[in-house]
């Protein structure tokens, strides 16, 4: 699993002219699922995301988590995070999870994030989405389960 996390002042996703999810202060997550991902991986990644301390405290130090600032999450599925651009000029997506598997884990992840008492909005899996955001910082992280989960054991 790969997640591009952006700390945002606000973000929204629109499908066919209709806003399907919008948040104020929090995280915009672009979530890519591979064919080898499992619920255990989703659990570990969700826990890591919710515990990240990347909001500033009263001293300007990044010591506060999403729940500390009453932050929200906008989750957007993005299989293109598994693009392989090594050969030629047209990316290959063979490492991305199939639609049924990826959607199942994407939905599971949004529920897992909600279990941390965080408001979660989302896009529509597989739809042509338009995403708007106001990046705060900018502060962008790339989280890869190959690294995160191997550290957690």
Main sheet overview: 6 strands, mixed
What oligomeric state do these chains adopt? single chain
Number of strands: 8
Low-confidence blocks of residues = none
Overall form = globular
- Termini separation comes to 16 Å
Radius of gyration: 15 Å
> Which structural class do the helices and strands define?
alpha/beta
What order do the SSEs take from the amino end to the carboxyl end, as H and E?
EEEHEEEHEEH
Work out the strand percent: 35-45%
Tell me the number of helical segments per DSSP (H or I, 4 or more residues long). Answer: 3
Folded structure, characterized:
The protein has helices at 39-51, 99-114, 145-152; strands at residues 2-15, 18-23, 26-32, 53-56, 62-65, 72-77, 119-122, 129-144. By secondary structure, it is of the alpha/beta class. The strands form two sheets. Strands 1, 2, 3, 6, 7 and 8 form a six-stranded mixed sheet that branches. A two-stranded antiparallel ribbon has the order 4-5. A hairpin with a 5-residue loop joins strand 4 and strand 5. Helix 1 crosses helix 2 and helix 1 (39-51) packs across helix 3. The chain is globular and about 50 Å long. The two termini are 16 Å apart. The mean pLDDT is 95.
